[in-house]
């Protein structure tokens, strides 16, 4: 079996490891703007995906399928991003007799449309945020819905994702201003101007449940908390949720609810059902990501289940490593910090060249999934995330201690990065107590407490490492 990995960076490495472990041939791709991609060293073979832009390469469906057919490929894994949740691509792959390693196209369609997915959730007795059942075509209708459910409300693009196409409105005037703005953003970013109106939950927690399924079984692999976010994008995740804590009734309820939704769309791969949880631990369906998640390692660390391995086995029609929900147990605590090429104070992307990095003496229980090598250029073409630092401990306090030491040991040279921001957060009182919501960055403002005058700040960002020696 030859598996083409249509992705790059740390997720391409993670997929290659799983493919190789199963005894298959991992085939990576390189492009004209990234000819020395680090993930290729983990692949058994590699091919040129001709082009120097995403539209010419990772998003070019016909070119990818032609490349697969010309090189005796049997299966394609998209990773996350790019074509991972494109049902049209899935159908093209399957039409050519190839295997798509991911969910069926129908499930992607149903869960990719926020209006459809909300209706399916309601029909499956999954709690949903009060608001419009389907698309709201006019400002007058949006005002009517908003008056019924009460302000503040959230205008949300039907096809949105990644924090785009969302505006909070605290009154009618703000709704009138933001309505056309969300329509424009939905059209420009997703090709769909449709939007929903929902009640805006204040101080919410972002809780998500990992799903793992094949054609015969749907299991949950417990929950993760992803409430530390900037611009609606996660930067720290942990499993299990510190907010749910020892409340096993809530944990069991939200996990079973996620399975119920997955069953409603005949889900058959790895995926994630995301919820907003209110301060009283009531929870509401947010969306389903029909792919592997960036933060999947913390679930693997706390359950011992290899999600990529089982995702591949499911797509190939093989028996997964687990056969019952009872086999899946949660142990210990895991935290993931996304290491990004961005300013630690403004949190804006900071492209540049990595001149070197040093892992130092990492403590036990640390995993670093990354794509860094001396000379790699972090460009605006791709997401600024360059690695994921993951800690595991017998409990949350131990996991935090291990992560703190790992952050102290990790140095990345040549460009700005957010290691100092992570250090600040992991020393901050509210985070240590597990007392945070998706408004943490906005309200607590840990970025303003980053010590940018420290000696190591300038050293890390400007000094050059060559052959492992600081120059």
A few lines on this structure:
With 471 residues, the chain is of the alpha+beta class. It has helices spanning 9-21, 61-70, 87-95, 105-112, 114-123, 139-149, 172-190, 248-264, 296-303, 307-315, 396-409, 419-426, 429-432, 440-444, 455-462, and strands spanning 2-5, 25-30, 45-48, 75-77, 99-100, 153-157, 166-169, 195-199, 205-213, 218-230, 233-239, 270-277, 283-289, 333-340, 352-353, 356-358, 366-370, 377-378, 385-393, 411-413, 465-466, 469-470.
According to CATH, the homologous superfamily of the largest domain is ATP-grasp fold, B domain
Count of strand segments: 22
CA(first)-CA(last) distance = 46 Å
**What would you report as the Rg, rounded to the nearest angstrom?**
22 Å
Low-confidence runs: 462-471
**Shape, per Cα inertia axes:** globular
Number of structurally distinct domains: 3
- Bin the helical content: 25-40%
Number of helices: 15
What is this structure's SSE topology?
Layout: E1 2-5, H1 9-21, E2 25-30, E3 45-48, H2 61-70, E4 75-77, H3 87-95, E5 99-100, H4 105-112, H5 114-123, H6 139-149, E6 153-157, E7 166-169, H7 172-190, E8 195-199, E9 205-213, E10 218-230, E11 233-239, H8 248-264, E12 270-277, E13 283-289, H9 296-303, H10 307-315, E14 333-340, E15 352-353, E16 356-358, E17 366-370, E18 377-378, E19 385-393, H11 396-409, E20 411-413, H12 419-426, H13 429-432, H14 440-444, H15 455-462, E21 465-466, E22 469-470
Parallel strand pairs: 1-2, 1-4, 2-3, 4-5
Antiparallel strand pairs: 6-7, 6-8, 9-10, 9-12, 10-11, 11-14, 12-13, 14-19, 15-18, 16-20, 17-19, 21-22
